[in-house]
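Hi F.,

I've been meaning to write this up properly since the lab meeting, where we talked about keeping a consistent format for the predictions we share between groups. The idea is simple: the sequence comes first, exactly as it goes in, then the structure tokens exactly as they come out, then a line or two of notes. No screenshots and no reformatting. I'm using this chain as the first example so we have something concrete to point to.
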Amino acid sequence: MGKIASMAYFRVPPRWLFVKITDEQGNVGWGEASLEGHTQAVEGCLDAWFERYQGMEADDIEHIWQMSWRTSFYRGGPVFMSALAGIDIALWDLKARKLGVPIYQLLGGKLRDKLKVYAWIGGDRPGDVEAQALARKAQGFQAVKMNATEDVGWLDSPAALQGCVERVRTVKRLGMDAAVDFHGRVHLPMAKQLARALEPHAPLFIEEPLLSEHLPGIRALHGLTTCPVALGERLHSRWDVRPFLEAGCVDILQPDISHVGGISEMRRIAAMAEAYDVALAPHCPLGPIALAANVQVDAVSANFAIQEMGLGIHYNDTGHDITSYIWNPEVWHVKDGYIAVPTGPGLGIEVDEELVRSLSKDAKPWVSPGFIGPGGEIREW
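Output, unedited:
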């Protein structure tokens, strides 16, 4: 046992928020509390929780998780759950490192030795996908994901959807699987058309075909298409996930470990999804700590399907990537569409604290981009 002695967070480029927890014996754990576009809000929450949790037993991970959830009165949501994720992941890393084992050993032991992965192509305004897909293939990937469209009106010309179909066909011709992210940009009148148009080209899945506040619409759309429907990055707890499982309108669940309260809640969500025959494909366009945390849960989840990797994603435009900030970037080597499950202690990565501290100085918060339509109206990004 060891009491929490200190906690710190580090805002680092391109858009990540790392958390470090140290106990009285000098044991250290790292977590990631990244919430894209809302870093300052999460930092404020961490300030309050850090003061409260100093002196508590670092091994009591579930007690601290429940304290964060049940004694705040207001609970859930992206800010609270991202802050909690940073703390939770760091505590799991600390505990497993102290015991000299990977986190997955504390979760029951791994079910697999390697994990299927995919990476992004195309950017926010998707284009030039053939060259980018070939580059991913050369990196070892066999599956990619791209945004379906640029900004789309509530009711737009059907011609606005044809580019998406052609891009999927292009990637498929290269012998790769292609997932399509509607990104919540596409409203129901257009989403129905796009799902139907993509069907003959067998996308790996269609992601966030509608925003998650439109459960009845997602349920209706799910019944209209044979394309597997994926969603979950904007659901922040098992209670948020439950209505979608009960409605039978999701095939692939995509919780984000940095937005759902960390490893503890991700493990519970995965088990819930398994009971509904729903696959797990965690959302992770974030940093190396978040990815490493996902990998620990993926390794022990029977319903794991595929893991998103932020390697070279278009947001990493500052020269920093998931291979940055760690001493052992080789853990992210992709071969034949898979990465190996790391065998090192804790998260299986070694954080370069000196670099983290150096680049956190005066780091600017990342601001979410937006789309403006031709009439001056704000459109979903």
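Notes:
The mean pLDDT is 95.
The chain has two domains: 4-102, 105-347.

If this format works for you, I'll send the rest the same way.

G.
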